[in-house]
Amino acid sequence: MAELQTHAQGAGQANLEKREYQQELNRVLTFKDLLIYGMVFMVPIAPMSVYGIVSQSSFGMVPLVYLVGIIAMVFTALSYSRMSKEFPIAGSVYAYVQRGLNPHIGFLAGWMILVDYILAPALLYAFSGMWLHSLVPSVPSIVWVVLFVAINTLINARGVQLAAKTNFILLGVEIIALLIFIGYAVKFVFVDGLGTGGFSLSPIYQPEHLNLGFIATATSIAVLSFLGFDGISTLAEETKNPQKTVGRATIAALVILGVIFMVQTYMAALVHPKYTNLDPDMGFFDIAKQAGGPFLYYVLIIVNIIAAGIANALAAQSAISRILYSMSRDKLLPGSSFLGKIHPKYKTPFNATLFVGLLSLIVANVLKIDTIIKFVNFGALTSFMLLNITVFAYFYIKKKERGLGAVLKYVLFPLLGFAIIAYVWSGFDKVTFIVGFSWLAIGIIVGAVKSKGYKIVPQLKDL
Fold it and tell me: Of 166, 261, 346, 377, which residue is most buried, by most CB within 10 angstroms?
């Protein structure tokens, strides 16, 4: 009777025990918590910081770019959803590829996503420190970086429930700021009759510019804008009924954020339809000043700093600490005995969290921002391609799922996801490939050492 009463909450734990893992993390998160986490990770106001660049690259059709992004990324999100139901554990793409395709390739998939998640917080801290230094020149950037690292490390180390509550508050701050902007924009356009003076199709449809070249450019921009939805899967072992909840939250976060991106950029285009004269770096904030004056300008800058330096970085640091924990639990990383430890009171991957905080502090002050960006993008998209291949290989080839529905879910959709990501991946510049393949080469060496020349196959505890 007790087992029946706790079936929903204990489903994920039962699967872990069957696979010989012990339930060490605190299983308390709900669908709402995961949805908020995913939204915070992708940042609801993310288009503000890149609006000027994206607008000039898309002939002012920024909302259309994000619509393309939703369509492009939903196939990879579906692949995450499929695999999260099959393997509800904390390793995300590492665990999925390891168990669904090949243990050694799974390690390399984890290695590639590591560079994304490890460096993402450092990138966010570097940007936030730079922005705050420009507002308060008397305070060096490194001071702000240290402050953000300390805040996020403390929150993540103290427990996933505290992180979830913090995410809720930070998401609220971003949404309120966004609503304030929309309110000013509506008044500016529809009440004062300025900007376009009313609704316009130009931000979403200009037939003279719509061609394969535009779609290709839009896809390249949009795919990189949606990185982060995949982080939801790293919280599987802290989620109630993860087989159902993780996949639903992944798809929902992607679609909801896509709609939010489209709404805010559409309103910005109505306020300032002449995209050619926008400042590439400060375009959205200049539009905010046009609609709401200096007050709105500074509010949005400050909220963007909070969103990047605390909210987004908090989510990224949480995700990478779980992947480090998962790979270390399988004894596949140098220092696994240290990184795989769980705090006895807080039930968090405590050592991994501290390690990520320290590493982020170092990287944010050593590597150049453009170098970090190249690492992050290459690692994320490479692991996404491996994930999509895994869905096809595991369900259609290995499990022999057949029928029309299976062909759609396990052949067409993942291969479309692979093709879209591969297209964007192929467009990286030479330096990005050099940096990315160098990291991959290091991973191959580490994997060879840990597996005695790839002769020892890691024990897959889910089989």
Answer: 261
Q: Print the domain residue range for 337.
A: 26-450
What would the two tokens of residue 448 be? Answer: 């060879």
Q: Which two tokens stand for residue 263?
A: 């709404």
Tens digits of pLDDT across the chain (463 residues): 444 334 444 444 444 444 456 767 778 899 999 999 999 988 899 899 889 888 988 899 999 999 988 988 999 999 999 999 999 887 789 889 999 999 899 999 989 988 887 788 888 888 888 888 878 889 998 899 999 999 999 998 888 888 889 999 999 999 999 999 999 999 999 999 999 999 999 999 999 988 878 888 787 777 777 888 888 998 999 899 999 999 999 999 999 999 999 999 999 999 999 999 999 888 999 999 999 999 999 999 999 989 988 888 888 888 889 888 888 888 888 888 898 888 888 888 899 999 988 988 888 888 777 777 777 888 889 999 999 999 999 999 999 998 899 999 999 999 999 999 998 888 888 888 998 899 999 999 998 888 888 887 766 554 3
DSSP state of 238: G
CATH number at residue 112: 1.20.1740.10
DSSP-based three-state secondary structure for 58: coil
H-helix or E-strand spanning residue 73: helix 62-86
How buried is residue 325: exposed, middle or buried, by Cβ count under 10 Å (0-12/13-18/19+)? buried
Give the span between the Cα atoms of 242 and 428, in whole angstroms: 35
Residue 28, token pair as written in the block: 């308390």
Domain total in the chain = 1
What lies within 8 Å, CB to CB, of 34 at 6+ separation is: 232, 235, 239, 245, 246, 249, 250, 253
